[in-house]
């Protein structure tokens, strides 16, 4: 039987040569100090099993084994309870580190996929704009597609590294949208600057966004549908009606139709 006193815990052990003795006949004792009972207790438990005669009936072996196992568990419980917080903290660190590493990898993968999708969307937009430009029938050549990266009140910024101030910018329909006024690394600034508008033998001024041909002679003989271009031959639009005289009676103006789309995503810079 298991004897517990204030100083030690004792487990009886069988003496050599005895055949399956009863517990009260075991006279050897294993001394288990209370300060560190687990290692010595487990050792004594192993000795008790070794000393049990394997030829004894199964029922008698289990009769002694069950109390010994329970005793070992009781001895181990305090130290197991003390180890539990540290073990849980270690497991938490290991599992947490694994999931943080996996989360970082997933975030990087997600970022890469978003970049690829954005690049694919840009490529699709450029292809669509190129098809529209080719199909407009205006014979536009020598242009570079450029994507809008920012917009302002009087213009927008394009991602186009090989540009210079003064380059004309056309929309996907091949129509005049503005002119490059400043470059900054891989981007350029496009402003809706007024351009000379030529219509037949007459000339006036057209400001993108307003799309009104102004400064025409009051007695001009232009009609609706007449084509207006820049001095460089770029399309500005067509007359929406016959020019109407201004209040001074000296000049006339007329709104334009079929003008550039200033809210597109892709434009073309003439070199």
In short:
By secondary structure, the protein is α+β, with helices and mostly antiparallel strands.
Helix content: 25-40%
Give the overall average pLDDT.
77
Order of helix and strand elements from N to C terminus? EEEHHEEEEEEEEEEEEE
Net shape: rod-shaped
Question: How many alpha or pi helices?
Answer: 2
The residue ranges in which pLDDT falls below 50 over 5 or more consecutive positions are 1-29
Number of domains: 2
Q: Give the N-to-C terminal Cα separation.
A: 103 Å
Question: What class, by secondary structure content?
Answer: alpha+beta
Please characterize this protein's 3D structure:
This protein is α+β, with helices and mostly antiparallel strands and 271 residues long. The protein folds into two domains: 3-81, no CATH class; 143-270, no CATH class. Helix content is 34%, strand content 31%. It has helices spanning 37-51, 58-135; strands at 3-4, 8-13, 28-33, 143-152, 155-159, 168-170, 176-184, 187-191, 195-199, 202-206, 212-217, 227-229, 235-239, 244-245, 251-257, 266-270. The strands form four sheets. The chain has a six-stranded antiparallel β-barrel with strand order 4-5-8-7-6-16. Helix 1 (37-51) crosses helix 2. It is rod-shaped and about 125 Å long.
